[in-house]
Write a structure and sequence with these properties.
With 272 residues, the protein is of the alpha/beta class. It has a single domain (2-271), classed as Vaccinia Virus protein VP39 (Rossmann fold, 3-Layer(aba) Sandwich), CATH 3.40.50.150. The chain has helices at residues 2-11, 37-42, 49-64, 84-96, 112-116, 118-121, 135-144, 156-161, 182-191, 233-238; strands at residues 29-31, 70-72, 75-77, 100-106, 126-132, 150-153, 169-173, 196-204, 211-216, 225-230, 244-251, 263-271. It comes from Candidatus Brocadia carolinensis.
Length: 272
């Protein structure tokens, strides 16, 4: 299973760009209804991972040094747009754990969620934020961002083995829909027995099935396109029922009231 998860890490797209909705008159958004991942890949252009990495790095370095306030999709903003349910979940976990937060952020880029919530996290007694990412993101993270609170690893296993205290929580924000076999990843994570799971910015279909589309990114951000799942919400939640209690579900801030678009949801789970 360890090797299979490494393969997943090689394939997944950085957790970005989910706030792009379907507009049938626009050249970007979500398109098609594909029968297989390979078919969707053939209809995609892929992405320049080196270009993405450099743009994200440059933006987050400005956030780290307080030269800018907020980064999303490598774009800088002068005001933080919080995912308040995610932040509430983080603070709830810390409250349950004597003011301490020790988590794995799967597909966490170079620390986007960490820096987004840094103002609130600094009030906690202890923070250990461990990002699991692709190799080139990990190398960049270690060189430019890693410190006593923020660490980078190439696999969940590596992160668990190198911690003095085992992380008891995991975040998956805007990443599950970009995995070829999302349910395989979910089952693997469930079997790791984290006490808390927070899932955010995940796209779901309006119908009773999983739908596979191609997401085309606004070229103002990047010229890229790749496969993306609209998952079935009921099926998704049921996977957790045997081992977790659903404490809360919520609409992510990307969610749109438009029809014929995915809905973006998040969930907070605690183990039974």
């Amino acid at each position: 299973m360890n090797e299979r998860i490494k393969e997943i890490m090689m394939d997944f797209v950085p957790p970005m760009f989910s706030r792009i909705y379907l507009n049938r008159t626009a050249p970007y958004g979500f398109f098609g209804n594909y029968s297989s991942w390979e078919e969707a890949k053939r209809a995609s252009t892929g992405y320049d991972s080196g270009l993405i990495l450099n743009k994200v790095k440059d933006s987050l370095l400005k956030i780290k040094t307080h030269e800018a306030v907020y980064e999303r999709d490598s774009v800088l903003f002068d005001r933080i747009e919080y995912s308040w349910p995610l932040l509430a979940g983080l603070m709830w976990i810390a409250a349950n754990e004597e003011g301490k937060l020790n988590l794995i952020d799967f597909g966490g880029s170079l620390g986007s969620s960490y820096f987004q919530n840094r103002f609130f996290l600094q009030t906690l007694k202890e923070v250990k934020w461990n990002i699991v990412e692709q190799k080139h993101f990990v190398e960049c993270g270690k060189n430019h961002f890693e410190d006593d609170e923020l660490k980078f690893y190439e696999s969940i296993e590596e992160s668990l083995k190198k911690q003095k205290q085992t992380p008891n929580a995991m975040i998956l924000s805007g990443v599950i829909q970009y995995i070829e076999k999302p349910y395989e990843l979910i089952n693997y994570i469930i079997n790791q027995k984290f006490k808390y799971l927070i899932i955010d910015r995940t796209s779901f279909n309006n119908h009773n099935n999983d739908k596979l589309v191609v997401q085309k990114i606004n070229p103002v951000i990047f010229d890229a396109s790749y496969p993306c799942w609209f998952l079935n919400k009921d099926r998704f939640v049921q996977i957790f029922n045997n081992k977790y209690i659903l404490m809360s579900d919520f609409k992510s801030f990307e969610d749109s009231a438009k029809t014929n678009v995915p809905h973006f949801y998040g969930f907070i789970f605690i183990t039974k």
